[in-house]
């Protein structure tokens, strides 16, 4: 079979364990599965994408209208792929649970978008971009995909600029850039502190253009709750109208999930309250694999929790670390006002520990360093749970007008949220659950282990490895949506011309709709006394305590037991009023939290199974003087989890498949930012 269309089927024979060095699982109930082939073209990773794209099969413009594609999610990845496929003439159905596609959570990524355009004389290059990305991810991503991200980044900036993103400019008219964490060059393009919002507006406008042309059907206030799978292939989605409660099926020749990450499982997170993992988890329960589940990024510049009853944290852009200096008092318990603490009694700990990168050290390292200071009693603020981000030096050097031009809306947001003026006093920041590097495992074509099911953006595991560098999230979503999936999906569809879509009477459709209805009925029938948010809050506390910035084997075992017990109580005690035939936000939340309670167990199992520290996954047992200790001999692979659940009160039955990761252009090395 041509490698272009080779698939790793679930019934494939397992490879000898010695072929990919995967250690036997030491977690009860976990089986070691198969060696996965990601379909990366052989040879030089720097030319892999060009060779792959040139070999794709095409769909004639006369035939595109004969194919239906369902796109779930309208953020940068979802809006991009829906608009691009619509422009090509495909029949596209786009789904969002928002009342408008422009409300997707991509708007929250404020600081900028990376690109290897190399327009400054600062030593940047495409290869340096790849090195920074692979190294930043602690060598737990595909090298060839980092090259694709770098190569397409140039096109992304020019494209988004062309469709209306108002990028900042230098005095002479050139697009302006600034630095972000984990790099020593200036490659981040930005629109003040509103980059995600402006890119999302541009993408949503492109999507609405296709809606007006009739190539895209937009379904707002509609949530995907299951996949239609027939003979092992994805054939559509089952959705619920969140206003009327109607459940209906949309058959499709291919489905794209671009539904974002699952950081909101921690309850207190930088994500919007409605962000969830249901679409991804429903795909996992239908047979897709979930990879890198435990690689969760804690953003070092989130606002600290000020009250137990606070519903979420607020993200302050990493771009602030270009001019802000991070410090804590040297003396534990020092309760003086920051202005009263002299310079020689301040510890600028990132500048001290990582002098080459200083306050622009990568997010995982910066978050661990902040937690170390807070745990040592040097935290600041009323709850002693934060560190200072101080702009006094920058204000003195550049003046208020310059700083306001760079970060004015971020300063205003901080002032509104805290009542404190960051022009006068330092900001207080703390690590907060933010971005999930984990997501649905996919091959180099971004197709999951279910043929016909594609994934893009944060819902995917691609590009970032064990830690995402700042400003690569908007980039990866745009690359997936505009410049990868519109090539790889036609390659898949080209061999399916004339394939009949399943109808309402087909067994695969009836079964999928029946699963959704049965799940809704089960949630409504519990009849307990506790609101769904009660269980979400408890789950978040377990996750922060045991599956947070730092993990231990004992803590992860406690998390697994605690989550299983919490899931059992959820199915006995949750209260969902109303019916399924109406607008019912309690029902929405209950379904999403039920999925979180299963996903949380998998995250803890993955963290316990991976016996090393890598990037954002930091096991206390595996460190060298506080720095992460990778084990490349045994763990240089991507875990891809297959899930089969017991009854609602039982644990998950899990199989860990693995895709080996090799590196040629960026040799394996210990990360160092000193």
From TrEMBL:
Record flagged with keyword 4Fe-4S: no
Major subcellular site: membrane
Membrane topology, from the record: Peripheral membrane protein
Protein origin, superkingdom: Bacteria
Annotated EC: 1.3.5.1
Start and end residues of each Fumarate reductase/succinate dehydrogenase flavoprotein-like C-terminal domain: 536-673
GO MF term list: electron transfer activity; flavin adenine dinucleotide binding; steroid dehydrogenase activity, acting on the CH-CH group of donors; succinate dehydrogenase (quinone) activity
Reaction equation(s) it catalyzes: a quinone + succinate = fumarate + a quinol
Statement: the UniProt record of this protein carries the keyword Ribonucleoprotein: no
GO biological process: anaerobic respiration
Residues passing through the membrane, by range: none
One Pfam family from the record: Succ_DH_flav_C
Region of interest (Disordered), residue spans: 1-24
Places the protein is found: Cell membrane
Enzyme kind, highest EC tier: oxidoreductase
Catalytic-site annotation from UniProt: 363
FAD-dependent oxidoreductase 2 FAD-binding domain mapped to chain residues: 69-474
UniProt keyword list: Cell membrane, Electron transport, FAD, Flavoprotein, Membrane, Oxidoreductase, Transport
Cofactor: FAD
Gene Ontology CC: one annotated term: plasma membrane
NCBIfam families per UniProt: PRK07573.1, sdhA_Bsu
Similarity-based family: Belongs to the FAD-dependent oxidoreductase 2 family. FRD/SDH subfamily.
The protein's name: succinate dehydrogenase
Species of origin: Tessaracoccus defluvii
């Amino acid at each position: 079979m041509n490698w272009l269309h080779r698939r790793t089927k679930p019934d494939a024979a397992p490879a000898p364990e010695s072929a990919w060095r995967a250690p036997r699982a030491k977690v009860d109930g976990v089986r070691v599965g198969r060696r996965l082939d990601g379909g990366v073209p052989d040879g030089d990773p720097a030319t892999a994408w060009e060779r792959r794209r040139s070999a794709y099969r095409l769909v004639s413009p006369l035939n595109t209208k004969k194919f239906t594609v369902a796109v779930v999610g309208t953020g940068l990845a979802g809006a991009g792929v829906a608009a691009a496929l619509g422009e090509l003439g495909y029949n596209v159905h786009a789904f969002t649970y928002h009342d408008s596609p422009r409300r997707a959570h991509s708007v929250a990524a404020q600081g900028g978008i990376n690109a290897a355009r190399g327009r400054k004389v600062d030593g940047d290059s495409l290869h340096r971009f790849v090195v920074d990305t692979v190294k930043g991810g602690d060598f737990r991503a595909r090298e060839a995909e980092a090259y694709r991200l770098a190569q397409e980044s140039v096109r992304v900036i020019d494209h988004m600029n062309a469709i209306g993103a108002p990028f900042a400019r230098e005095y002479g008219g050139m697009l302006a850039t600034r630095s972000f964490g984990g790099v020593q060059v200036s490659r981040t393009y930005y629109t003040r502190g509103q980059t995600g919002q402006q890119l999302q507006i541009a993408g949503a406008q492109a999507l609405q253009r296709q809606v007006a042309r009739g190539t895209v059907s937009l379904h707002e206030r509609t949530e995907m709750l299951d996949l239609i799978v027939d003979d092992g292939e994805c054939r559509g989605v089952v959705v619920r109208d969140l206003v009327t409660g109607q459940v209906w099926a949309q058959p499709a020749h291919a489905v794209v999930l671009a539904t974002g990450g699952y950081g909101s499982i921690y309850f207190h997170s930088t994500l919007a309250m409605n962000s969830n993992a249901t679409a991804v988890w429903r795909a996992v329960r239908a047979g897709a694999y979930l990879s890198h589940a435990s690689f969760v990024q804690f953003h070092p510049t989130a606002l600290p929790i000020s009250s137990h009853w606070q519903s979420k944290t607020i993200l302050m852009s990493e771009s602030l670390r270009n001019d802000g200096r991070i410090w804590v008092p040297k003396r534990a318990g020092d309760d003086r006002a920051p202005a009263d603490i002299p310079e020689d009694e301040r510890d600028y700990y990132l500048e001290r520990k990582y002098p080459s990168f200083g306050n622009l050290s990568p997010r995982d390292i910066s978050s661990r360093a902040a937690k170390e200071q807070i745990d040592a009693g040097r935290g600041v603020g009323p709850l002693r749970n934060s560190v200072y981000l101080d702009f006094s030096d920058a204000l003195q050097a550049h003046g208020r007008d310059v700083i306001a031009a760079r970060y004015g809306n971020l300063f205003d947001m901080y002032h509104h949220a805290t009542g404190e003026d960051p022009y006068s006093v330092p900001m207080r920041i703390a690590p907060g659950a933010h971005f999930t590097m984990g997501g649905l495992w996919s091959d180099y074509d971004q197709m999951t282990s279910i043929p016909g099911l594609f994934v893009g953006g944060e819902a995917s595991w691609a590009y970032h490895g064990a830690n995402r560098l700042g400003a690569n999230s908007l980039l990866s979503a745009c690359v997936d949506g505009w410049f990868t999936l519109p090539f790889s999906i036609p390659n898949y569809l080209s061999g399916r011309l004339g394939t009949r879509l399943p109808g309402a009477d087909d067994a695969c459709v009836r079964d999928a709709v029946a699963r959704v209805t049965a799940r809704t009925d089960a949630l409504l029938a519990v009849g307990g006394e506790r609101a769904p948010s009660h269980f979400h809050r408890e789950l978040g506390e377990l996750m922060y305590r045991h599956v947070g910035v730092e993990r231990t084997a004992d803590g992860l075992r406690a998390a697994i037991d605690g989550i299983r017990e919490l899931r059992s109580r959820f199915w006995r005690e949750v209260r969902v009023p109303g019916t399924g035939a109406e607008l019912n936000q309690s029902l929405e939340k209950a379904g999403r939290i039920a999925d979180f309670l299963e996903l949380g167990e998998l995250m803890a199992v993955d963290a316990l199974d991976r016996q090393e520290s890598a990037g954002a996954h930091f096991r206390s047992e595996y460190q060298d003087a506080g720095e992460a200790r990778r084990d490349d001999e045994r763990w240089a692979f991507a875990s891809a989890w297959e899930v089969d659940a017991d009854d609602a009160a039982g644990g998950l039955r899990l199989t860990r498949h693995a895709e080996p990761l090799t590196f040629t252009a960026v040799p394996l090395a210990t990360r160092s930012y000193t």
